[in-house]
Design goal:
globular, alpha+beta, Glutathione_S-Trfase, Glutathione S-transferase Yfyf (Class Pi), Chain A, domain 2, 206 residues, Glutaredoxin, single chain
Length: 206
């Protein structure tokens, strides 16, 4: 596989969204391959050979096959020689925010996204108890990020990193998923700056 022949398997859900946005933001030379989750393409033997978890995104390049969106963003950054995944003193701080996000921030925002937007697609009803717990937990942890962004324009350092795209993963759906983003003015201002990026607003191939 040549250096330019990267393949990014995706669908229009949260984790693939940030990988696709990163690919576009970095102007990485990738071939986008859509996996139709509704028809079960992620459960075929061919796809499970790429990712035994049966999930997207997946990146294939001459270094091999890589799954997990945060790792894919880092690989794409390295491939184009960007510091979107920094290799200096900022890297540990980026890792901290990636870990915190997965455990505390997007975890709860994604729960709201699932309850309000995904369950109804399969005939399910949103679980009120799950929603209330997710909103309470989101507010608790969003305060930490909001306080951080009161004195920082981005998550780490002075320029965008993979941490910003990870933290923002569920926020495009804030209104439809009733994520209480509007209660946190510094997060909202930071996110509005991300929304100015075409790669973030329109991450998926037409």
């Amino acid at each position: 596989m040549s250096k330019a022949a990267m393949k990014l398997y995706y669908c229009e859900t949260l984790n693939p969204r940030k990988a696709c946005a990163a690919a576009r933001f970095l102007k990485a030379d990738v071939e986008f391959i859509r996996i139709d989750l509704a028809s079960g393409e992620q459960r075929t033997a061919e796809f499970l050979a790429l990712n035994p978890n049966g999930k997207v995104p997946v990146l294939q390049d001459d270094a091999g096959t890589l799954w997990e969106a945060n790792a894919i963003m880092c690989r794409l950054s390295d491939r184009v020689g960007s510091d979107f995944w920094p290799h200096d003193h900022r890297q540990i701080d980026v890792l901290r925010w990636l870990s915190w996000d997965a455990s505390h921030f997007t975890r709860h925002a994604a729960a709201l996204w699932f309850e309000y937007l995904i369950k109804p697609l399969f005939g399910g009803e949103p679980d009120v108890a799950v929603i209330e717990d997710a909103k309470t937990s989101f507010r608790l942890h969003a305060r930490v990020l909001d306080d951080h962004l009161a004195t920082n324009s981005v998550a780490v350092g002075k320029t965008l990193t993979v941490a910003d795209f990870a933290l923002a993963a569920a926020l495009p759906y804030a209104t439809s998923a009733e994520i209480p983003l509007s209660e946190f003015t510094h997060i909202q201002a930071w996110y509005e700056r991300l929304e100015q990026l075409d790669a973030w607003r329109n991450p998926f191939p037409a």
